[in-house]
Amino acid sequence: MLDYVSAIEEMSLGAKLKALRESKKLTQQHVAEHLKGLNLGKSKQMISLYESNTNIPPISVLASLAKLYETSLDDLIEERNGALQAQEHKPLYKIADYKRVEDSYKHNVQADSNLIYEKSSYIPFYDVEVTAGKIEVFFDESDNPAGYIYAPEFAGCIACKVWGDSMYDRILPGATVFIYPIESKKYFDYGQIYMVAYPGHRVLKYIQPCEGDESKVMLVSENKRQPPYPVEKNDIQRVFLVKGYWNQTTN
């Protein structure tokens, strides 16, 4: 038993969460349903991202998992703090670690580090999350970017992360999206994917017309388990067209 505890203590946060879950003979689906019952709204895919160290869970999730796994919350928070510190010292992205998915055509995108590229080929990356939930900070691309990604095919765009499963299984949790600012909030190319910011929310959705009411649009998810809902055009603060995205791949 002591050997098992010692092994757990030496694991990364993700590996520790996986080992604790397996020790309770729980599946990722069981854990996801447990969190959903607490109104934390996490999917099986998100649990997988936590356990693979792709995403660092918030403290609210760790608190629930600590109770479920009957382990110390303080230990999990300490591991989380270490993971956050390590993340700050990693390169922003390695292009070879990502796969671009566009119009159902998939191919690897590689960057040759020995070549010198034009400045416009580097896309600013902003450390904000596009989700289907509430946010505290409104996205402003005038802020200093966290770094740059080489992606000449998306010149003029900005990049950010996607969490949540509203666009599953087209755009996956953890994907990098390349978005282009749209000035008009009155006329949209219906059927396209947009990042829409309105009071308290920043979401990735299809925009469709609202039948019988031109003052509103319908925000529609790829995930059919999430019903569409209307938003007043006047409430939309910012809108960005999704020009493309890279779904993160794991080996």
TrEMBL record:
GO terms for molecular function: DNA binding. InterPro entries: Cro/C1-type_HTH, Lambda_DNA-bd_dom_sf, LexA-like, LexA/Signal_pep-like_sf, Peptidase_S24_S26A/B/C. Residues 17-76 form the HTH cro/C1-type domain. Coiled coil: none annotated. Keywords: DNA-binding, Transcription, Transcription regulation. Pfam families: HTH_3, Peptidase_S24. Signal peptide: none annotated. The keyword Transcription regulation applies. It comes from the Bacteria. This is LexA family transcriptional regulator. It comes from Fibrisoma montanum. The lineage of its organism: Bacteria, Pseudomonadati, Bacteroidota, Cytophagia, Cytophagales.
